[in-house]
Amino acid sequence: MNPFSSSGHAIQSATWLGPGEREAFEVAGTTAHRLASGSAGWVERLGDDAMISHKNDAALEELAAGLEAWSVSGQWTPARVFTRFLPLKNHERVSPILRSGDASLPLTTVVTEAGIRFGLDFGTGYSHGLFLDQRANRAKLHALRPKRLLNTFAYTCSFSTVAGLTGAETVSVDLSRKSLDRGKQNLALNGIAEAGHRFINDDALELLPRLGHRGERFDAIILDPPTFSRGNNGRLWQVEQHFEDLLLAALEIAAPKCAILLSTNCTKLNPASMERQARACAKIKRRTTEYTRTAAAVDFPHGHGASTVWMMVR
């Protein structure tokens, strides 16, 4: 790892990709990944553009200087640089701001991950459309080659896109119709016909029992809920309180040999605590399970990215 600063001194709070690591992403056909990670922010490469996410002005200037020095060193130079403030409260989130580059260019772009295409939009809100910390889990899902995938809290349906490329039928569920529409666009970007792929605008916790009553079963299920949200009729969702309810409902529709991804950004839940909850739920439902974790990504140091566990149901 090679940190830089505009003065040539190492930036202690940010760790930057080295030349070999960046080259590995290029060889893999991945143009969406982190360039740097620090305690007060990070920098992402997003196709031809870069995004600096920062918790304060000092972090913004430090990361911007680091990106400039990193670019001068011959690593990679972004066409545009966007910045995004990381507030403590969700209601304070705003869309990214263009810091440098051609303001006349569209705010939409396309990135690749292992050659798979995903559309991003810097103008639709706080999140651009692809959670980079789930890259290894998308790769694992691709390797699993499920026949039927249930993707809850699907957002822009990146997992559904990956599964669709292996020939799977998919059901994508999200409260945001706009996100699901962007998910349809991601399938289209990869030449995946919409037939065999359902997009349901609904509350996952309410939908799962209905799927069970209809006899639907899945051999892969994605459970990556938000830390906090409001569902149908204003019902409060808090992952610490409701994650087990979600998992119990998922186990009811898990086919034999089902792979369930458990994932959260809640800092109060780590892989060990999620596995304990999962084992308790499996015992209640009398299902035999095993647990695996994907290897840490080179661009996400310890403490960065979602906590995830794969629950393999037998």
Task: Give structural notes.
This protein has 314 residues and is an alpha/beta fold. It is 30% helix and 30% strand. The chain has helices at residues 19-27, 57-72, 135-144, 158-165, 177-189, 204-213, 239-252, 271-285, and strands at 14-16, 32-38, 41-46, 49-54, 80-85, 97-100, 108-113, 116-121, 148-151, 169-174, 197-201, 218-223, 228-230, 236-238, 254-264, 289-292, 307-313. A seven-stranded mixed sheet has the order 11-10-9-12-15-17-16, with helices on both faces. Strands 1-2-3-4-5-6 form a six-stranded mixed sheet, covered by helices on one side. Helix 5 (177-189) links the parallel strand 10 (169-174) and strand 11 (197-201). Helix 7 packs across helix 8. The longest helix is centred in the N-terminal third of the chain and has 16 residues, at 57-72. It is globular. 40% of the residues are buried. Residues 1-11 have low confidence and may be disordered.
Quick take:
With 314 residues, the chain is of the alpha/beta class.
Structural class assignment: alpha/beta
Detail the poorly predicted runs. Answer: 1-11
Q: What spatial order of strands do you see in the largest sheet?
A: 11-10-9-12-15-17-16
Q: Indicate the overall shape.
A: globular
Extended strand count: 17
Helical fraction equals 25-40%
What Rg do the Cα atoms give? 20 Å
Mean pLDDT: 93
- The secondary-structure element order is EHEEEHEEEEHEHEHEHEEEHEHEE
Number of helices: 8
Beta-strand content:
25-35%
- Give the termini distance in whole angstroms: 40 Å
Biggest beta sheet attributes? 7 strands, mixed
